[in-house]
Amino acid sequence: MKKILFSFFAFFLCLNAFSLPNGYSSAKLGMNIDDLKKALKNDFQFGYRGDRDVSLSPSDGQFLIETDGSQSGYSFLERCWFQFAEEKLYIITLNLDRTKVDHYSVFSKLCEKYGNPDELSPKKSVWRDGNVIMSLEKPLTLKYVDAKAFDSKKNSSNVEKTTVEKAKDDFLDSL
Question: Which of 76, 83, 96, 169 is a good FRET partner for 102, with 20 to 30 A between their CA atoms?
Answer without folding.
Answer: 83
